[in-house]
Design goal:
The chain has 97 residues and is mostly helical. The chain has 5 helices and no strands.
């Protein structure tokens, strides 16, 4: 793997934004945006619980899969508030000082 895997997160953010106004028939992401902040928040909560349960189970593949689901839904939630990972990273940096 030559490229930094985390760089894909920026690509994913752009993809999520591009799907914001897409057809709800063709895009799960568009359906989430259309459903509104309550549904998006519910999905983040569900996925967070699934990550926690996968962690208890201890199977790495399951933890990674659930963490990927949580990350995707968190990115959708952030975009729904016109925020992104850069905002989260800036806050983490501020806290570390």
């Amino acid at each position: 793997m030559n490229e930094l895997p985390l760089a894909f997160l920026a690509e994913l953010e752009a993809l999520i934004e591009s799907r914001r106004e897409a057809s709800t028939r063709e895009s799960y992401t568009a359906r989430l945006f259309a459903a509104g902040p309550r549904r998006i928040a519910q999905k983040v909560g569900e996925e967070g619980l699934e990550v926690a349960l996968a962690s208890v189970e201890g199977k790495r593949e399951h933890i990674v899969a659930e963490a990927a689901d949580l990350t995707y839904h968190l990115l959708v939630l952030l975009r729904s508030h016109d925020l992104g990972l850069a905002d989260v990273a800036a806050e983490l940096k501020r806290r570390s000082q």
